[in-house]
Structure formats: structure tokens, C-alpha cells
Recover the amino acids of this structure.
């Protein structure tokens, strides 16, 4: 696996980490970046994250044998339409987007004959953004979900799988629908829970937040994520998120009922159940040397 | 400020950190521990956290000039009743409990003539427990709330304030009632939010939790806290917690309504509002060199 020309669309935290991981593992000859902000692209080139950048999508796509979409998911469809005429036969197009579902089928349909699309999502990142925080180490030990469909080219799928394995990910195949259902529960719902928690404390009294300890800091860290990106994820994964918000509100209602009804035994059991599940997750991660 | 005999009731994460901080700053001649588990007390003595331990509360309290309650809050009242006859005139009794309110007045009333009670709560800790994780560094830069009442001895209050300042805390005085209202919002509510979030994901599908990234891990870290301690906090701060659970559920209902009604502009604004408030908190903490 070696790519003569790799195009990275969106050189932010994850796009830059992909570029750095490709260089680290010797998978790329030339990495070309694309983005809305030329200053950012110049910085990325100066730091050796990308080798060059393009200011129009035709130049970017021309001759590329690998194209990675690392832009906000709402931009995928229009960009796919623009690059399609320039893609060469045999090119592989992939992504790192947090939502799959319908988008995967739309991306497949946007590809010209002879170009494979393979959906991918490394479940990695942090609350930071931008190339300054980019680190190929975030992929080590992280799960990466590949979402092939009945139309996905098997060789291209294997190539993308191998690439993420080289980066240190544990790769797993899921349907686009199953991916979205899972991510809604363990990523999209927690983000909304964190946003709502900050807003609730602010509503109770804007001065109270200053008394926060590490518990509140940890619980609400992801509320610093981009509002636009998370709005777009809500747009694209709306049904799952609404279902899971209902499940969450049911759990909060249960706890409210126990406290209201002085049912302290059941309350402690509920807390204990959550604690056991969370400790099991911690122990699994510690065992794979991934905190 | 120097204490000939300090009694620490409850030698766990915080009790042990207090003992270590007192030794670090040369405030204590002899620290005597008390707890239900003699093996733990022996370990604490072997590690030099405490100098000795008592197996009955009379021996512990006799001759002590400082007594710190660091046991679970539900144990405070019965223990206060037991030690009262043994406390010497001029002794100061304080605590590190997460709930104040009525408990402060009850503790005051339990003290014999000439013994001062001063409520204190260092807002510090982590998801760990026990003496192995005890670290006096957790107090550095943390807030410590002192909750004097109209009956509190001013000199004793000043002594306790100075002690926590020596440990590195930013000390602030609040009424017991205000303390509980604030802590309900920025600590008790987030714990319940985290417990409920783990249980919601488990209810959705017990296998999904294994796909978690760092976002879910951070958001639910405090769900590993002791279920019994958090049940007791719900018992003692029930009214505030019920009010704040309602505020949180209202925020979740708002977000649900925006997603359900396709009101993406307002949704992004709500997310952005939370993000700004949380970033402000981060920046304040970074400025005081306390993450």
C-alpha cells in the first residue's frame, strides 16, 4: 500500500492527524491539502503536515489515488460532486466522518465509474481542534469503523482497512445504519447531554459554574466541541438521536422518581449499575493499554 | 497554627490527603486515624499518612485539638454524638463533607460547650478512592468553601480558613444553604447526569458501550464514584437536586424540540452558548494554573 498522491479535504485536527500518520508509516509520496482557509493550509505545509495544497478542487483531485474527506460532513455531497469529473480510474475515496447512514450511499452514487468509495470513521479525537493539536497517536488503540455496502469494492475496502490498522486502530466493519445507531448512543447523545448540562447550570445561576471541580470539568469537556459540526450531526442522525434522547430522559425520570419517592435503595442500585458498567469499560481499555 | 493531636475520621482519598497536607505544611504533631477497616488504618500508618489509629471513638477524640470528619456524611451525626463527651475545651471540629445545610446546624448542636464546629468543603477529588490515590496536590488551586453560621466561633473559623489556604485552596465563605444550592448544580447534578447516561446507553444496547471514545469516557468518569456516598448526598440535598434535575430536563426538552422541529439555527445557538460558558471556565482555570 503506497499512494503517489493523497488528497486531504479539510486539514483540521483529524485531517492533519491522518496526514501525519500516513507520513509516519511511509504510506504517502505526496499529500495535498484542501480547505477554506489558505493561512491554515500554509501553516500545515510549513509544519510538514502536508506537502502542498490546492485552492480548487479540480487541481486537488486530479491524479490523486487516495482522497480523504475530513471536512464537516455537511460539505461532503457538494465537494463530491465537484471532484467527481477529475477523479482517475482506480482512485479510492474515503472519509473520517462521524455520521454514515444515507451519506455513504450518496457518496457512492456521486463517484464516477472505476472510483471506489469506502466509508470510515476513526473513533478518536479530543476537545481540541486545528492542526496545532494534531497527533497521529490518537489513532493508536482507537476503534475505526468501516462501513461497506453491497456496492463497495472489496479491494478498496481492504486497502482502507489495512491503512487504519497500520495507524494502530482496531478496525471493525458495520453497516452505515448500525454505525449511526451506535454512535448516536455513545457519542452524539453524550455531546447533547454535556451541552444541556452547561446550559442548565447557567440557567440555574450563571455564577455557580465558577465553583466547578474536576467532575463538572470532565463531564462537560465535549461541550467545547464545534456547535456547527454537532448541529450537522443532529441533522444527519436525527432519528437515532431523538430515540436516544428519549432513553436518556427516561433514565433521568427514573432517578427523579426514586429521589422524589425516597426510594433510596433503588437509587443506590441504579447508581451502582452505572458504576459497574463504566468500570468494566475502564478495565477493558486499561487491558488494551488505551486509556 | 499547630495541632498537637489531630483526629481524622475516615481515612480515605480525602481524609488521607488532608493528613498528608498537614504533614507537608508542618501543621500537625500527631495524626490519629479512625475508620471501620483496621487493615486500611494499618496501611495508612505504614505509609506514614497517619501516625497512629484508634479503634474506638473515645480514644480518638480524647485530647484532640483538631477533629476532621472525612467519613461519608451519613455517619457524621452518630459519630458526633459519640465523640462529644471526650472532646476537650478549645478543640476545633471540622469536616470535608459535600453536603452542608441542616447537617452544619446539627453538628453545631452536638458539640459540647467550648468546642467549635466549622463546616468546610474542599471542592477537590477525582474518580478514585482510597489511600493509594491520596495526594495533597489535589487541593492546590481548588476552591474550599467554609460555611460559618451565626453561632460559629470566629477564631476557629479563621484557623480552619488559614489551614485550607496553606494547603493551596482558594477559600470562600458561604452559608450552608447557599453551599448546597451551588454544589447541587455543579456537582450533584453532573453525577446524576453521568449515572443516567451510562444506564441509558446500557438500556439502548449493552454492547454499544464498547465503542466509546474519549468523549463518553470523560463525560461518564464520575459515574464510577461510590453509589452509597452519592445516594446519601441525594438524601441530604434532595430539594436542590430535584429542582436542578428539572432544570436539566427542561434543557434536554428544549434541545429535543429544536431537533424534532428542524430548528437547526437555534440548536447551533444553544450548543454555542454552552461551548462559550465552558470555554470561559477552562480559560479561568488555565489562568490560575489549575486544570
Amino acid at each position: 500500500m503506497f499512494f503517489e498522491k493523497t488528497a486531504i479535504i479539510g486539514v483540521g485536527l483529524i485531517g492533519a492527524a491522518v496526514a501525519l500518520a500516513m507520513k509516519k508509516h511511509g504510506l504517502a509520496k505526496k499529500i495535498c491539502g484542501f480547505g477554506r482557509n489558505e493561512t491554515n493550509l500554509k501553516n500545515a505545509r510549513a509544519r510538514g503536515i502536508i506537502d502542498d495544497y490546492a485552492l480548487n478542487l479540480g487541481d486537488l483531485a486530479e491524479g490523486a489515488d487516495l482522497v480523504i474527506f475530513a471536512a464537516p460532513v455537511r460539505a461532503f455531497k457538494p465537494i463530491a460532486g465537484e471532484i467527481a469529473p477529475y477523479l482517475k480510474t482506480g482512485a479510492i475515496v474515503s472519509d473520517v466522518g462521524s455520521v454514515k447512514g444515507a451519506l455513504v450511499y450518496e457518496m457512492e452514487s456521486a463517484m464516477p465509474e472505476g472510483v471506489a468509495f469506502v466509508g470510515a470513521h476513526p473513533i478518536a479525537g479530543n476537545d481540541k481542534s486545528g492542526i496545532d493539536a494534531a497527533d497521529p497517536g490518537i489513532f493508536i488503540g482507537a476503534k475505526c469503523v468501516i462501513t461497506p455496502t453491497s456496492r463497495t469494492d472489496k479491494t478498496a475496502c481492504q486497502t482502507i482497512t489495512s491503512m487504519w490498522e497500520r495507524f494502530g486502530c482496531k478496525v471493525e466493519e458495520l453497516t452505515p445504519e448500525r454505525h449511526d445507531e451506535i454512535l448516536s448512543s455513545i457519542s452524539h447523545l453524550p455531546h447533547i447531554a454535556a451541552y444541556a448540562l452547561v446550559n442548565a447550570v447557567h440557567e440555574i445561576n450563571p455564577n455557580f459554574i465558577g465553583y466547578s471541580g474536576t467532575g463538572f470539568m470532565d463531564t462537560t469537556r465535549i461541550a467545547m466541541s464545534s456547535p456547527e459540526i454537532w448541529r450537522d450531526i443532529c441533522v444527519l442522525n436525527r432519528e437515532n438521536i431523538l430515540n436516544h434522547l428519549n432513553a436518556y430522559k427516561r433514565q433521568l425520570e427514573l432517578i427523579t422518581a426514586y429521589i422524589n419517592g425516597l426510594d433510596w435503595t433503588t437509587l443506590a442500585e441504579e447508581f451502582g449499575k452505572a458504576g459497574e458498567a463504566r468500570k468494566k469499560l475502564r478495565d477493558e481499555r486499561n487491558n488494551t493499554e488505551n486509556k
